[in-house]
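RECORD TYPE: inverse folding
INPUT: structure tokens
STRUCTURE:
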């Protein structure tokens, strides 16, 4: 009888692993939050332990959505879980829809540049000007950073953002830090940009099985 029970337990464990038996949700979430912290994120909450930090993210998500949805953090979709956790680090992550109602009146590029200016002391843009020659471009962006002037010319694409010239310029500015603004490889029109060192990028890529552009 003892032998039969032992074999049964081993069989259940084997098939549980083969078919991706899931961990308790809170355990899974805490492990992923720890992986993000180990990858350099959530430094603003350095005084929190992993349980406290996990609860903080749950609270932020609940406040944003009105309630907390566990299905937004699926154990079988690491990319989705990564996005929905990492997006709450406002010092490291910029997360937005590329179809952003870009037009002359809305001055979306000005807002985006200001947002990135909140993410690192090396990037503190001032005197930001967004100029449109016509309703369909060309667009010229001018700003100053620590006494240096920058001129950007994003491409017009209806109401979509062209982030390439912005990120190229931002990465030149923050290069002394050894970090870059990296673009997460995603499948939809939402863009997640994250400020990382090479080692942090390698660690997050390994821990979450994600890719960067």
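DESIGNED SEQUENCE:
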């Amino acid at each position: 009888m003892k032998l039969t029970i032992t074999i049964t337990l081993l069989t259940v464990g084997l098939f549980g692993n083969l078919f991706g038996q899931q961990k308790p949700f809170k355990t899974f979430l805490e492990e992923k939050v720890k992986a993000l912290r180990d990858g350099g994120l959530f430094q603003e909450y350095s005084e929190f332990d992993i349980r406290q930090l996990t609860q903080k993210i749950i609270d932020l998500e609940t406040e944003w959505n009105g309630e907390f949805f566990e299905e937004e953090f699926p154990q079988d979709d690491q990319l989705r879980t990564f996005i929905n956790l990492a997006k709450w680090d406002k010092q490291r992550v910029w997360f937005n829809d590329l179809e952003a109602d870009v037009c002359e009146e809305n001055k979306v590029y000005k807002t985006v540049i200001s947002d990135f200016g909140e993410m690192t002391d090396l990037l503190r843009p001032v005197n930001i000007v967004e100029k449109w020659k016509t309703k369909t471009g060309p667009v010229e962006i001018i700003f100053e950073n620590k006494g240096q002037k920058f001129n950007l010319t994003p491409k017009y694409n209806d109401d979509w953002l062209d982030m390439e010239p912005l990120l190229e310029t931002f990465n030149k500015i923050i290069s002394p830090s050894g970090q870059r603004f990296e673009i997460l490889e995603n499948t939809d029109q939402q863009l997640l940009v994250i400020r990382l060192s090479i080692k942090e990028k390698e660690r997050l890529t390994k821990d979450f099985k994600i890719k960067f552009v």
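NOTES: Residues 24-89 form one domain.
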